[in-house]
Amino acid sequence: MNLVFLGPPGSGKGTQAVRVAKALKVSHISTGDLLREAVRDKTELGKKVEDTMKQGQLVPDEVVISLIGQKIMALEENQGFILDGFPRNVPQAESLKFMFDNQHKKLDKAILLRVSDDEVVKRLSGRWNCPKCNTGYNHPSNVPKHEGICDRDGEKLLRRPDDEEAVVRKRLEVYKAETIPIEDFYRKESILTEIEGEQQPDKVFQDILTAVKD
Questions:
Q1: Alpha carbon distance 66, 49 (integer Å)
Q2: Is 160 a catalytic residue?
Q3: Distance between CA atoms of 188 and 183, rounded to whole angstroms?
């Protein structure tokens, strides 16, 4: 089972992708995680994309396509996967299709999580992460026992620079301009399934599982 998860930043696609990947026993490939790891580790790639990410802009297509291609090629044969955060525009979607055609792979479903702009801003502006163990917290649904401190290791929690409200608004503008056309791309491929993303997380999870098993 090979899936793409689509949706605006803060739609919950990353959280759901982890859960669904575990349930389906497939690999979870997060573009955002891969890029943030590169920035954190100060790799050559990380140095190139750090400023772009802080400003809420999309990383250049050629960089992301190469990164994802390498990750997919490294998977074991017949190992399914969920792509989270990729593709983000039609050229990336076309490159992915070309890549898959050459490798005799195919996408089974593109799952789109629908979430309003106001809900995205509310979710992301209240999101904090532990820099050590990467545990995530969100006000008001998942707060630490001690404000600003990770429950697991006592580290001070940080907000990602791209979760500041002004940057979130910018990210939404970029998403609408470049990512929404992908919906039509996958709709024409007859593999797009829309899920209401503002439901309770467990209901979203169950709806996704039902959709991918149809």
A1: 14
A2: yes
A3: 9
Q: Is 171 designated active site?
A: yes
Establish how many alpha carbons lie within 13 A of residue 64's alpha carbon, considering only the half-sphere containing its beta carbon.
Answer: 26
Report yes or no: 71 and 34 within 8 Å, Cβ to Cβ.
yes
114 is an active site residue: no
0.90 exceeded by pTM: no
Please give the CATH number for the structural domain made up of 2-115+179-213. Answer: 3.40.50.300
Q: Which of 13, 36, 109, 123 is catalytic?
A: 13
**Cis before 140 (ω within 30):** yes
Comparing CA positions, the residue from 212, 195, 171 lying closest to residue 6 is 195
User: Between vectors from CA 15 to CA 28 and to CA 176, what angle results, nearest 5°?
Assistant: 95
Our separate counts of H helices and E strands in the chain read 9, 7
> Is 152 tagged catalytic?
no
Question: What tens digit of pLDDT does each residue of 96-146 get?
Answer: 999 888 888 889 999 999 999 988 888 887 888 898 898 888 876 788 999
pLDDT in tens, 143-190: 899 989 999 999 999 987 777 888 888 888 888 888 889 999 999 999
Q: CA torsion sign, 145 to 150 to 154 to 156? A: negative
Per domain, the residue ranges of the chain are: 2-115+179-213
Residue 88 bears catalytic tag: yes
